[in-house]
Write a structure and sequence with these properties.
alpha+beta, elongated, Aldehyde Oxidoreductase, domain 3, single chain, 11 strands, 3 helices, five-stranded mixed sheet, four-stranded antiparallel sheet, 149 residues
């Protein structure tokens, strides 16, 4: 990935990047000796959406610094709520083909219930609050969609 560095109190990884997301890098970023659980979620580009079959690809756009700051805020909230260990949250920008990973989150925690809950809250809030724009392309058309995350 292009210059991605761990940020935050717990060594969290937060990034917006044009480079492909490596799931093993996300897992490695949250690995800790006290972690009895690591939860990884990958959001991938699918070939359909509401009202459109045959989606061929997506375009994501974002102001990197703004989105990374928003994701850091969400990460801090998730940590406060669930008391988990290290968190990784990475979102792609640029043109992505069907099947490519658009967003990845990983959470480590001593116990699995907190890891699952935190990962779910993280992806849900990222999708809801991060200002990322998504344009879907399908045969004969294209359109910007709300909630790019």
């Amino acid at each position: 990935m292009d210059p991605i560095t761990a940020t935050g109190e717990a060594g969290d990884l937060v990034a917006v990047s044009a480079e492909p997301i490596d799931p093993s890098a996300l897992v490695a970023a949250v690995a800790r000796g006290d972690a009895g659980a690591v939860v990884l979620f990958l959001g991938t580009v699918r070939d359909h959406s509401e009202g459109h079959e045959g989606v061929t690809h997506l375009e994501y756009e974002a102001y990197r610094e703004v989105v990374e700051d928003k994701i850091r805020q969400i990460v801090a909230e998730v940590r406060d709520q669930w008391g988990v260990g290290t968190i990784a949250a990475v979102h792609r920008v640029g043109t992505l083909a069907v099947g490519e990973v658009a967003v990845g989150v990983a959470v480590s925690s001593p116990h699995r219930p907190e890891a699952f809950a935190a990962a779910r809250a993280l992806i849900d809030e990222l999708k809801r609050r991060a200002p990322i724009w998504k344009k879907e392309h399908w045969p004969g058309g294209a359109g910007w969609m709300a909630g790019g995350g």
